């Protein structure tokens, strides 16, 4: 199996943007702009926008995503949302371990692992984010950092569950900065992550795994990144908030 046989997935991470009314309008415009496509599309939206976006993308084949979930199915966890709640809201995908959660909200590799196991148990697809900080890249430990994040996050995940896991390589220094990893840098680390997954499971799991790049991907640079042998899709922040730009990235992944 090679890249041609893996699912290309373009996911928009809207982060903390768009009220429900704004979200419905953006989702409707993406639905029409990206009606012709040959890749999977996920919109990972704020919790309060799930209902409005779910309605707007009904029957479009676009998947509804969330940006986090807790590991418990219910309980005294003020402010948290469980995987089961997401499922009932029509969510199919959840982003876990995003660097902003790690940086601002105390997320660790261990809590990412707990959330990931619970999300998979509930039947969700997971987009697991990993990536190094600038200082770590400068120290030459990018591969080690990403390998550690992947290994801890995937602890206890079965081979069968790996069919519902996507990994997003998001170098922290490239997120929201306008600094994109070069296509060669993105491909190198995505390839290294695939190697780690092969060591954890086997070659068929690794070859079937969709690995996305994220970090200042936009309409101008998407094609070159997506053309790399180990880059199977994108996790897009800023450019996913502009319907036309996001549609161009979807078109690039559909070639
Ligand atoms: P930007 O595309 O805004 O750099 O964000 C990337 C990201 O964090 C997606 O999860």
SSE blueprint:
Layout: E1 9-13, H1 20-33, E2 40-44, H2 50-56, E3 63-66, H3 83-88, E4 93-96, H4 99-104, H5 109-121, E5 125-130, H6 134-138, H7 142-153, E6 165-169, H8 183-200, H9 203-208, E7 211-214, H10 222-226, E8 233-236, H11 243-253
Parallel strand pairs: 1-2, 1-8, 2-3, 3-4, 4-5, 5-6, 6-7, 7-8
Helix pairs in contact: 1-2, 1-11, 5-7, 7-8
Bound molecules: 1,3-dihydroxyacetonephosphate.
Tally of extended strands?
8
Into which percentage range does the β-strand content fall? 5-15%
In the CATH scheme, the class would be Alpha Beta
The largest β sheet comes out as: 8 strands, parallel, barrel
Q: Could you say which structural class the secondary elements and strand pairing correspond to?
A: alpha/beta
Count structural domains. 1
Distance between the termini: 18 Å
Q: What small molecules does the structure contain? A: 1,3-dihydroxyacetonephosphate
Which spans of ≥5 residues are poorly predicted at pLDDT below 50? none
CATH superfamily placement: Aldolase class I
Q: Please tally the helical runs, counting DSSP H or I stretches of 4 or more residues.
A: 11
Order of strands across the main sheet: 1-2-3-4-5-6-7-8
The percentage helix is 40-55%
Let me know the average pLDDT.
97
3D shape: globular
Secondary-structure element order, as H and E?
Answer: EHEHEHEHHEHHEHHEHEH
Rg estimate, integer Å: 17 Å
**Can you tell me the CATH architecture?**
Alpha-Beta Barrel
